[in-house]
Design brief:
globular; 7 helices; binds S-adenosylmethionine; 24% strand; alpha/beta; Rossmann fold; transferase; 214 residues
């Protein structure tokens, strides 16, 4: 169901369709983890995150929040680099594996990145990291994601996000574009968009919380 379809439905019907859509996404993700190691779980921290954390002009370690952490490879990496890390994932099985991987070095919470108010994640955070979580979130939950991060962002905070473009999906609602992020993340600047190296459209987006707006 895309947003144009959704606005044509009566409220109750729309709410039900949106809940069904969220449940379908959740079940699909749970199935991936139940079946074994999902294809995205490479165990390798991407060079783009390493560059941000260790490269020229890297910020000093502060507080980081990872959205859709999977089995915790990158939460563990950030914690090793001195960051105080909280990581969130929707799927319990992934969260259990992430907790084993990070031990006491980071907090891993089971919950919805679009409903951070329901979790113990007051922030503020200096860094948000999202490796292909947002691009799979149903359209009606994306404002919740953006406002949750915005409320928890320290002045000048960064959001490093990897996402698949809409062309990479069979359905009409998944995927992310630079235009969408610019429109949705009010009070943030999209400071960099770098295409990924995959055979289909992928992007590394860097957003900065506008210090004046914070
Ligand atoms: C493509 S996987 C990537 C996982 C991890 N970032 C990695 O690279 O290994 C997307 C992850 O986001 C999680 N996810 C999807 N929607 C979510 C949501 N609304 N809240 C929290 N996690 C979510 C999924 O359970 C899954 O672990």
């Amino acid at each position: 169901m895309d947003q144009a379809d959704a606005v044509r439905l009566p409220d109750a019907e729309r709410a039900r369709a949106e809940r069904d859509q969220e449940e379908a996404v959740r079940r699909e993700l749970e199935d991936y983890y139940r079946a074994g190691r999902p294809p995205w779980d490479t165990g390798v921290t991407p060079p783009e995150l390493v560059a941000l954390v260790e490269g020229r002009g890297a910020p000093p370690p502060g507080r980081a929040l990872e959205l859709g952490c999977g089995t915790g490879t990158n939460a563990a990496y950030l914690a090793r680099r001195g960051w105080e890390v909280v990581a969130v994932d929707l799927v319990e099985r992934a969260v259990r594996q992430a907790r084993e991987k990070v031990g006491a070095a980071a907090r891993v919470l089971c919950g919805d990145a679009t409903r951070l108010d329901e979790l113990d994640v007051p922030g503020p955070y200096d860094l948000f990291f999202d490796l292909s979580c947002y691009c799979g979130i149903p359209p009606h939950r994306r404002d919740g994601y953006a406002s949750g991060l915005t409320r928890r962002a320290a002045p000048g905070a960064r959001l490093l996000m990897f996402g698949y473009g809409p062309e990479a999906f069979d359905d009409p609602v998944s995927g992310v574009t630079a235009e969408e992020l610019r429109a949705r993340f009010a009070g943030w600047d999209l400071v960099d968009t770098t295409p990924g190296t995959n055979p289909f459209p992928t992007f590394w987006f860097t957003l900065r919380r506008n210090a004046a707006a914070a």
